[in-house]
Design a protein that fits this description.
The structure is a single chain. With about 475 residues, this protein is of the alpha+beta class. It contains twelve helices and 20 strands.
């Protein structure tokens, strides 16, 4: 049989929608390079993502006792145990840009998170590292970069502006990258991508309105393709569309309410796995504009919403819709109350400042919040590692920066909590605890990520005069 080759840009099309495909063997030549990119077979690109979680960590529960490989994993990192060989824990780094701009610690920490530049009155003082890469190389994909936040935009300013508090991705000084906060919109943007100049057909719009699957309109093309590819590629296609259907099923069953953090309580929810947050105002002194201040309660909805976003980010990387991404678990103040963690109805932010309920342990509750976030990172890593690409996996060709806007919730910029996951296309040696002498600028790590991503950037942020050493040896 004559060999069958596919361009990496191949999509399934039908009724005005287009669905990208994962990397298939039919897209790769004998040297592990892609067909159909820049008229020649090219190596798989490095995907880069900034992943934020709020309010720092409890160092005693986060920092491993030994350095190098084979360290004993700590309680806060325990959800990542299955991936210990796929990431590095990095300690000793300082966010030197912190508290050099307007407002408080969070209003500084959010715009500094991935920029390492002191903030200015209108927001970040420069671009975030993933947006630098997007500006250089993002034209090669449908989306230069994808940005999302698991929480609706808030009204807190902490002495600065809402832009400071609500954004971690920036295209330039004072220029936040638009952030998608509705997973249903994110799903329709990515999975049912509309080709340039086209619009969804009436059939597709009707399917969406009736909560039917938009995937049904491309199954004819899928059937034709499956008759031409090998058994391994056929299995990958089936797995890919099954994953997309699962996301679509969740979203169609659980419509998203895009209400702000200080909104009225939603209608009673019988199913605790719904995407919509329940809210409460347990403290009578929390009042805004004459009304009780509403705060989200419980982690179930936040977890499901985050998993939908993360599954879609993995799809975007898998299908080469983008190579650069940013995801924040919350805005600058995470006021979520988690009775599941023993925090009763005290918000996460208050707990990090020693406000745990009487008889409860602040570090213990805070540690559960951190483990919740590392569990979501594990969910993403599983999505990436289970995707074959070339001689390795999608995770091997990625760099995921996972960190917080400050080192501890009581406000500090020393010994920032950092996990760097993925091998950056083979450039990074993983499976280690790397401890650097304090205070090594965090900007050096960001410059190293830029270099591994192919950027010609010479310096980055405050203190990023050279790439962080030791990542590739």
């Amino acid at each position: 049989m004559k060999p069958f080759f596919l361009s990496r840009r191949t999509m399934l099309r039908g009724a005005g929608i287009a669905i990208a495909l994962p990397t298939l063997d039919a897209m790769i030549d004998g040297r592990g390079r892609w067909y159909g990119i820049a008229r020649a077979a090219t190596p798989a690109p490095v995907r880069v993502m900034a992943f934020h979680f709020p309010h720092g960590v409890v160092p005693a529960l986060w920092v491993p006792a030994t350095t190098g490989p084979n360290y004993a994993i700590t309680p806060s990192l325990m959800p990542l145990a299955a991936f210990q060989k796929d990431f590095n824990v990095i300690t000793g780094l300082q966010q030197t840009a912190w508290n050099k701009g307007p407002g408080g610690g969070h209003a500084n920490g959010m715009p500094d998170f991935a920029t390492a530049v002191p903030s200015i009155p209108t927001g970040a003082g420069g671009p975030s590292f993933e947006q630098v890469l997007a500006a250089e190389f993002g034209a090669a994909t449908k989306f230069r970069a994808l940005v999302a936040n698991n929480e609706q935009a808030g009204t807190q300013t902490e002495g600065a502006t809402t832009a400071h508090m609500n954004n971690i991705s920036w295209t330039g000084p004072g220029m936040p990258a638009p952030s998608e906060r509705d997973p249903l919109n994110f799903f329709m943007t990515l999975v049912s991508a509309v080709p340039t100049g086209a619009a969804p057909s009436p059939q597709v719009l009707a399917a969406i309105a009736q909560k039917k699957s938009v995937l049904d309109y491309v199954l004819g093309e899928l059937g034709k393709l499956e008759t031409r590819v090998g058994s391994v590629d056929k299995a990958r296609l089936d797995e890919h569309l099954t994953s997309i259907r699962e996301v679509e099923r969740i979203l169609s069953a659980n419509p998203v309410a895009t209400t702000g953090a200080e909104c009225k309580a939603p209608d009673p929810i019988a199913d605790p796995t719904l995407l919509v947050d329940t809210t409460s105002a347990p403290n009578g002194n929390e009042v805004k504009d004459g009304s009780p201040l509403m705060r989200p309660v419980g982690i179930a909805s936040a977890k499901l919403r985050a998993q939908v976003f993360l599954r879609l980010f993995a799809t975007a990387f898998r299908c080469d819709l983008t190579r650069y991404a940013s995801f924040a678990m919350s805005n600058g103040f995470d006021d979520r109350r988690a009775p599941e963690f023993g925090g009763a109805l005290v918000g996460h932010h208050q707990i990090t400042h020693g406000g745990a309920p009487a008889g409860s342990s602040t570090p213990a509750i805070e540690g559960q919040f951190v483990a919740f976030y590392t569990g979501l990172l594990a969910f993403l890593l599983d999505q990436l590692k289970s995707t074959p690409e070339g001689a390795g996996t999608l995770l091997d060709n990625s760099l995921i920066y996972f960190g917080s806007e400050m080192s501890v919730g009581s406000h500090d910029n020393n010994n920032m909590p950092v996990v760097l996951a993925g091998r950056g296309g083979g450039a990074v040696v993983t499976g280690r605890h790397l401890a650097y002498p304090a205070p090594t600028p965090l900007a050096k790590l960001f410059l190293a990520i830029l270099k591994f991503g192919g950027s010609k950037t010479a310096t980055f942020g405050l203190g990023g005069d050279a790439p962080l050493a030791g990542l590739n040896v």
